[in-house]
Design a protein that fits this description.
Elements (H helix, E strand, L loop, with lengths): L1 H22 L1 H8 L5 H22 L11 H28 L2 H8 L2 H12 L6 H18 L12 H23 L4 H23 L8 H13 L3 H12 L3 H5 L4 H14 L5 H30 L1
Helix pairs in contact: 1-11, 1-13, 2-5, 2-10, 2-13, 3-4, 3-9, 3-10, 4-8, 4-9, 5-8, 5-13, 6-8, 7-14
Length: about 300
């Protein structure tokens, strides 16, 4: 019992550490984008993230071996790398270019709702009226944030930026569904995804005709931070937290602290004045997501009883 309690405490500590790192990302994205274009930021972060994950993977018990990198594995990573990191971060970073960090970051947290919607066609899941209510609650939050609380005229602050921020949530949801079906070891798999993401972004930059430049000091610092604490190390910390925990649901719920903590950090680090509409909209979004997850757990319990 004492061992189980110690493991659960480790799980909470590791999960909180991961949440703390992820909560800084909106600020890190916005600040780093002051010094480097969004597409080149992605290219360098994907490369650095792949290097960090390669080192972590080779130091672990389940090292990725060359013999395991067969055609099927490469094809899977080619597809998954197209969605994440390439499309996901390309769209997300551009939204941060166009919007305030608090708006882009908060709208990106709608991905669990996007996952529910995409599960209908992709996973053939049925949706209940209560699930529709949960989606409507979160959608209300999106409208509040997009219009900065001026719901009556429904004019978005920046239609393209809003579309990109919400669109990135759908891209992440597609990646999540693909990842559920891929049973390979996580660090090696994501490392290969990042390698393909780097290649896609490099090709994208060449085709777009943008001049490729080496990042300056501030941009390089941002790249190191984002590649380590967004794309590699924090993910490993989160996995370890889930492995230590005897109740993954309780640990997973800590992720809801992240968007609220992120707003506080954005205010301090980026200097944005946090709008009341952002906080109000975030409450609606999180409330809808929590209701959706409660319904999902209830459905699983009913299935077990049958």
């Amino acid at each position: 019992m004492n061992t189980e309690k110690a493991h659960q405490q480790k799980a909470y500590l590791l999960a909180l550490l991961a949440v703390a790192f992820w909560s800084t990302m909106s600020s890190a994205f916005k600040i780093t984008l002051r010094y480097i274009p969004f597409d080149q930021l992605l290219m360098w972060c994907a490369l650095m993230g792949a290097i960090v994950l390669f080192i972590i993977n080779q130091l672990s018990a389940r090292r990725l071996k060359i013999s395991e990198v067969n055609g099927k594995a490469l094809l899977s990573s080619a597809v998954m790398g197209l969605f994440n990191p390439f499309l996901y971060y390309l769209i997300l970073f551009k939204s941060y270019d166009l919007l305030e960090a608090q708006i882009a970051g908060t709208l990106n947290y709608t991905w669990p709702i996007a996952l529910v919607l995409l599960s209908i066609p992709f996973l053939k899941q049925k949706i209940s009226w209560l699930s529709l209510l949960a989606i409507f609650i979160s959608f209300t939050g999106i409208v509040i944030i997009s219009t900065k609380g001026n719901i009556t005229d429904l004019k978005a602050t920046d239609p393209l930026g809003i579309s990109l921020a919400v669109g990135s949530a759908f891209i992440w949801a597609i990646y999540w569904i693909l990842n559920m079906k891929d049973k390979r070891e996580e660090t090696g798999k994501i490392m290969l995804n990042l390698v393909f993401g780097f290649l896609y972004t490099f090709i994208y930059i060449l085709i777009s005709g943008v001049k490729l430049t080496l990042p300056g000091t501030y941009a390089f610092m941002g790249i190191i931070y984002i590649s380590m604490f967004e794309m590699s190390i924090t993910f490993v910390i989160w996995l370890k937290a889930l492995n230590f925990s005897s109740d993954t649901a309780k640990v997973s719920n800590l992720i809801y602290l992240s968007p609220f903590l992120a707003l506080f950090i954005i205010h301090l680090a980026v200097g944005e004045k946090i709008h009341v509409s952002t906080i109000s909209g975030l409450v609606f979004i999180v409330a809808g997501i929590i209701l959706q997850q409660m319904l999902g757990r209830r459905r699983k319990q009913l299935k077990k009883q049958k």
